[in-house]
Amino acid sequence: MRTEGDSWDINTGVGSTALFVAAARALAGREPNAVAEDPFAEVFLRAAGQEWADLLDGKVTEHPLLDPGFGAAFREFQSARTKYFDDYFRAAADTGIRQVVILAAGLDSRAYRLPWPDGTVVYELDRPQVLEFKRETLSDNGDKARARRREVAVDLRDDWPAALRDNGFDPAAPTAWLVEGLVIYLPAAAVEQLFDHIAQLSASGSRVAVEEMDPLPEATRADFATRDDADEHGKAEWVHLIYNEVRPETAPWFTARGWDATRVTIPDYLEALGRKTIAVGPADSHLIPSLVSLVTAIRP
Q1: Which pLDDT score is estimated for 103?
Q2: Nearest partner of 48 among 16, 25, 75, judged by Cα
Q3: Can you give the pTM of this predicted structure?
Q4: What Rg, from alpha-carbon coordinates, does the chain have?
């Protein structure tokens, strides 16, 4: 259960969800005609613990990510959002943006794997324990960032705009922001404040990409939290980590403030990619992927 001022590292609480997502990316990237690939996901998992290495090496036969229903759909969903945000950054770079901010960066490896133009600075904001794990893991593996990567060790519940500026961020320069896998872990008021901060720090030509998810229907939330097999699938823990609230809708919020916004649901995006959305069980279908949307907003 979330509490005021709760804490975590890469293996606990909210931080542990990054490993589950990384595992989904790693497994999805191995599939024929993968939508997206992230070779660094496997590096993180092997550094995180033997249980993740066993999953990658086929020594585990029962795991939610291997389930033909939930697991297959979740892997496809993670591939889709990875490609969407990869393409978003490529498009931003093509317009001349050289300042990037990744909020709640977790195990995001884009500073290491995307072809950033010369002069690009990537700011990664997250808790110090998470950033330390990423830095040391990739350093031990001999990997180097392909942009000027600047860590900003800060809890997003604190004054992160000040911490960002203290680390060299220029609010007068156009910025490409990423809010991936974050808003569901924030209460509605905090999402509003997050969007306010982004808008205040964004010069003309800036853009933001956001993953948003509608609240779980109450019946689904209760099913995840109480059914006998919930812990096996990780859903009982996960449902207590999120804030299942109605939050500000990204596209209307930024449109009302003069930005140009577009939104696509995961099923529609997969269809545009020529991929068929994988059908899952009645409860899972509410989560993966029908409630998830991807939004890009650009400030003229």
Answers
A1: 98
A2: 16
A3: 0.89
A4: 18
